[in-house]
Amino acid sequence: MAKGVFSAAHERLKQAAATLPADTSAQPFVDALTELVQARADTTGFVTLPRWAEILEWHFPPDLPDPAHVKE
């Protein structure tokens, strides 16, 4: 039962995400959530911590120094 509910909810999530304007400030959150749910759908039900970290790092990278503002 849960698998069917998950599949249907996953489809609704993808449809809702597709309707959002791309320039919304929530876009990184939407993209990360969508990718995390897809990663769950692609497995037997368990997404490893390294995969979670990879997805979150991709959508929320650490602040890197701006090369234009480097002290000499």
Report a brief summary of the structure.
With 72 residues, the protein is mainly α. The chain has one domain (2-62). Helices cover 61% and strands 0% of the residues.
Give the terminus-to-terminus CA distance: 62 Å
Quaternary state of the chains: single chain
Low-pLDDT residue spans: none
Rounded to an integer, what's the Rg over CA atoms? Answer: 16 Å
What is the 3D form?
flat
Structural class: mainly alpha
Order of helices and strands: HHH
Q: How many distinct domains?
A: 1
Largest sheet entry: none
DSSP strand content: under 5%
What does this structure look like?
The chain has 72 residues and is mainly alpha-helical. It has one domain (2-62). It has helices at residues 2-19, 27-41, 49-59. α1 packs antiparallel against α2 (27-41). It is flat and about 55 Å long. The model has no long low-confidence stretch (mean pLDDT 85).
Sequence-ordered SSE layout with sheet pairings:
Elements: H1 2-19, H2 27-41, H3 49-59
Task: Supply database-style keywords.
flat; mainly alpha; 72 residues
